[in-house]
Amino acid sequence: MIRRLGLLFVLALLLWPAAALAQDSTDNSDEDVLIRINGPVAVAADQTIDVVMVINDDATIDGTINEVLIVVKGTATIN
Fold first, then answer.
1. DSSP assigned state of 53
2. Which pLDDT value is given to residue 27?
3. DSSP bridge partners of 37
4. DSSP category for residue 70
5. How many C-beta neighbours within 10 Å does residue 78 have?
6. Average pLDDT of the residues of the chain
7. 12 and 31 Cβ atoms separated by less than 8 Å
8. Angle, CA 10 vertex, CA 5 and CA 16 arms, to 5°
9. With DSSP H G I counted as helix, E B as strand and the rest as coil, what are the percentages for the chain, rounded to 5?
10. What is the DSSP string of 20-37?
11. How far apart are CA 45 and CA 30, in angstroms?
């Protein structure tokens, strides 16, 4: 089970857009990554997050996900 979660995490990192990795280090933009294992995630209407990954639970999205939303063994509810 741990190996599978590790492989999923590595896969998620490999799928990350190349442009995000190539940004200039002087860029002061906020890049938020939220990873939750065995717990639910709720993104409020006033929140903006770049990447959300949830494993073994549900995600409720009322706010904005800029890049990637991954839910493994759970349900994503997007409002």
1. E
2. 45
3. 55
4. E
5. 11
6. 79
7. no
8. 125
9. 25, 40, 40
10. HHT--TT------EEEEE
11. 18
The tens digit of pLDDT for each residue in 32-55 reads 899 999 999 999 999 999 999 999
The tokens describing 37, both together, are: 């294992």
Per this entry, what is the length of the chain?
79
Please state, as a whole number, how many other Cβ atoms lie within 10 Å of the Cβ of residue 1.
Answer: 6
The model scores a pTM over 0.70? no
| C-beta atoms surrounding 56 within 10 Å | 15
Report the alpha-carbon distance of residue 79 to residue 64 in Å, rounded. Answer: 10
Q: Both tokens of residue 77?
A: 């509810």
* Cα gap 61→52, rounded to integer Å: 10
**Residues 30 and 45: beta-carbon distance below 8 Å:** no
Q: Is the separation of the CB atoms in 49 and 34 below 8 Å?
A: yes
* Residue 11, both tokens: 């896969």
